Amino acid sequence: MNTAAAAAAAAIASHPLSVEALLGGRKVLHAQPRTALDWVSVIRQGISSTAVETLARTIRVTQAELAVALGIPERTLARRKKEGTLNSEESAKLVRLARVVERAEEVFGDLNASLDWLKSANAALSGASPLSLLDTDIGAESVMDTLGRIEHGVFA
């Protein structure tokens, strides 16, 4: 495990889970975004392709599954890995996925339970798994809305 991955694992082990930790921490992001607006410049600059690997490992999906969840062709992700940096649109999709994982962990209080929920068919989402909807803004909003309902006991 490289140093960035080790740092990410240590950050993830500490609670609460954060988008920054999910993407590999400061060593991968080269910044420490503190507000939503701080993320704008991180996204515009492009996020290191190392963050893709870190997130895939953390949420226990293959590169192919991650590519589908992000709505980015697998070949493009492989090319970005060689280039070292995602473009701003790809970076935004990666941050969107990490934000949903962070929110699910907040709601369920446990990463394993969160990942199970994200990967399972959900009646509130017309039988789709939350992870399968994250390739679009509307799908991600629906997943976040469902998490909010769960948090408030609507789907308990």
Folded structure, characterized:
The protein is mainly α. It has one domain (3-151). The chain has helices at 3-13, 19-22, 26-29, 36-45, 50-58, 63-70, 74-83, 88-108, 111-119, 137-151. The longest helix has 21 residues, at 88-108. It is globular and about 45 Å long.
Q: How many domain regions?
A: 1
> Strand share of the residues?
under 5%
> Can you summarize the main beta sheet?
none
Count of discrete alpha- or pi-helical segments spanning 4 or more residues: 10
Our Rg estimate from Cα atoms comes to 15 Å
What low-confidence regions span 5 or more consecutive residues with pLDDT below 50?
8-14
Structural class: mainly alpha
Q: What's the end-to-end separation, in Å?
A: 39 Å
Shape: globular
Element order, helices and strands?
A: HHHHHHHHHH
- Per DSSP E runs of 2 or more residues, the count of β-strands stands at 0
Average of the residue pLDDT scores: 90
Indicate the percent of residues in helices. 55-70%
Summarize the structure.
This protein is an all-alpha fold. Helix content is 65%, strand content 0%.
Topology:
Layout: H1 3-13, H2 19-22, H3 26-29, H4 36-45, H5 50-58, H6 63-70, H7 74-83, H8 88-108, H9 111-119, H10 137-151
Helix pairs in contact: 4-8, 8-9, 8-10
Q: Top keywords for this entry?
A:
156 residues, mainly alpha, globular
